[in-house]
Amino acid sequence: MVTSSSVRLVSSTTRELWNEWHAPSGYSINVATVNTTQISYLLCALDDCHLLNFMWNTSTGELSDRKKISLGTQPITLRAFSSKNTTHVFAASDRPTVIYSSKKKLLYSNVNLKEVTHVSFQFRCFSRHLPIAKEGELTIGTIDDIQKLHIRSILLGEHARRICHQEPSRTFAICILKYNPASGEDFEMHFVRLLDDQTFKFIPTYSLDTWEYGDGIYDGGCSGGCIAIWCAWKDKASKTSVDEGVQNVWEILQPNGRRDNK
């Protein structure tokens, strides 16, 4: 049972009041639940764009392990829906999010929409479809299976200043800064390194001129595999950056090679 500023947990059999949670004074709330075979959660969205979640003991009504997060900058509307016989919650706001439980943890997955006003209902005959509303628009979409994010760290041993991915050549291009201690002072050396995006092995490395450093790098946009590198210059006397430079466009050839256009 939900009032304008509190949530009451009532036994479905005896109608006994088990527990009651009051929102902070002056706040209204929106409520949804996530129920699993292991843990159930109570979600309370406040109109200040914060979301509270509690672990909920459905046998006693006890609420515990309160946590608070911020979701966007607009008030949040919660809507429970079912996907593969599991309860999820859609949090509609200017940062729409799907909330679900996995391995005894409550997880949040961003939705690739800029803003959602409301998720009004779910089709029984199309259980994977959701009608998503925002101002002047109604979209019927599906929720893809949530994938695990695998993170792999590649040790460079150098300072990576800029990076871009070049799809046709299947490479990462990285602007690298390295210090040369053999010079007796922190003398900077600048390179552009290419990294295979499948094996993460280094392929050719190209040295920039002595007083030149990579200040920007991006996909050149051509189908053959080009990268554009903005190289700024440093003043030799003061070793500070100057507002001048040159843009190089390199074509990544197969096997590994390059063509310069300055």
Automatic annotation (TrEMBL):
Organism annotation: Glycine soja
Pfam families referenced in this protein's UniProt entry, alphabetically: Beta-prop_RSE1_2nd
Protein name: DNA damage-binding protein 1 isoform A
The organism's place on the tree of life at top rank: Eukaryota
Domain RSE1/DDB1/CPSF1 second beta-propeller stretches: 40-141
Leader sequence residues: none
